[in-house]
Design a protein that fits this description.
Length: 334
């Protein structure tokens, strides 16, 4: 029996959001009892990763636990999401565990301390980990000015990160997914690429740009997104964010709550989107698989579907830190 299996009944007795905070605060201690994570170096987006298994956005939303999270053995951390200005997000309760389905529904609504405070936390952490940050727009920023919010985050965070994930796919900010529409997305990515090029000259270093996409898109939308990402030379696509589908949780306690669904019920849908993008992009843009990874076998499925890296969140909640080593071992055994 591992240490997390002993701690889990206590954590699951708490409100889900409170349990999340307790787990983050004790992550450094948990790392002392976790299985060692084997090295499996991989180079993606021009970045050298010690292993291809990362923490998905949403685990450490405010960059307050960077070093503790890194000590668990992740190959990289995607922090955030963060918005330019502070915003509280949606009212609690806004995080729900659906234990029978090994699933989570969240409707945080991009709660954020603001990009300036977020950058201060990164400066204080002085972490040697590979750091990505998920960036979004403020709730009250109209879509026609959304690009300004993404550019602001890029400017402030540029000196402190290895990559930024452009989040246009959260289901918890009204209208955000409209930014995935072909012409709107192309204009946003073009502006971000051009601004990145100017910042690269100024800072003398490159920050990769990844695009995080929804699992709730059809083939035509996927083709449009692939074309825009290729044309604007994105460094990676993250497939996928959470889903608005309730397949796998309908009728279960909390299964009808509003928000984005993650965990085991998302796996098949997310992998289908990942596999489709692999076919569309033919290796031109690396893919990061995220959604429903609850075991090493699930991670291997993502790698086999075309992912160069994977990310976990819900699996960590239900399985604990041992999942990280298990996924890395699955990668090494391919």
């Amino acid at each position: 029996m591992n240490v997390y299996s002993l701690a889990r009944p206590f954590l699951f007795s708490l409100d889900a959001e409170n349990a999340h905070q307790v787990a983050l605060r004790t992550a450094g201690i948990a790392s002392l009892f976790s299985a060692p994570v084997p090295r499996a170096p991989v180079r993606v987006m021009g970045i050298d990763f010690p292993n291809p298994v990362g923490a998905a956005a949403g685990l450490d939303k405010h960059a307050e636990h960077v070093n503790a999270m890194a000590s668990l053995g992740f190959g990289f951390l995607e922090l955030g999401g963060v918005t330019p200005q502070p915003q509280p997000g949606n009212a609690r309760p806004r995080l729900f565990r659906i234990e029978r389905a090994r699933a989570i529904i969240n409707r945080f609504g991009l709660n954020s301390i603001g990009v300036e405070a977020f950058a201060d936390n990164l400066r204080r952490a002085r972490s040697s980990a590979v750091i990505g940050v998920n960036i979004g727009k403020n709730k009250d920023t109209p879509n026609e000015r959304a690009v300004d919010d993404y550019v602001r985050c890029l400017e402030v965070l540029y000196p402190y990160v290895h990559y930024l994930a452009i989040n246009v796919s959260s289901p918890n900010t009204a209208g955000l997914r409209e930014l995935q529409a072909a012409q709107t997305l192309a204009a946003l990515l073009r502006t971000m690429r051009e601004k990145r090029e100017a910042l690269r000259e100024r800072h003398g270093r490159n920050v990769a740009l990844a695009l995080k996409i929804s699992p709730d898109i059809d083939d035509a939308a996927m083709a449009d997104i692939a074309d825009a990402a290729r044309r604007e030379r994105m460094d990676a696509l993250i497939a996928t964010n959470t889903t608005i589908s309730r397949e796998g949780v309908a009728g279960l306690p909390y299964g009808g709550e509003a928000g984005g669904l993650s965990g085991a019920p998302l796996r098949e849908r997310s992998t289908r989107v990942l596999r489709r993008f692999a076919a569309l992009l033919k290796g031109e843009i690396p893919l990061i698989g995220c959604g429903g990874i609850m075991s090493g076998a699930d991670a291997r499925e993502k790698f086999d579907a075309g992912a160069s890296l994977v990310q976990i969140y819900s699996g960590l909640v239900f399985r604990g830190p041992e999942l990280i080593a298990e996924c890395v071992s699955a990668y090494r055994a391919r």
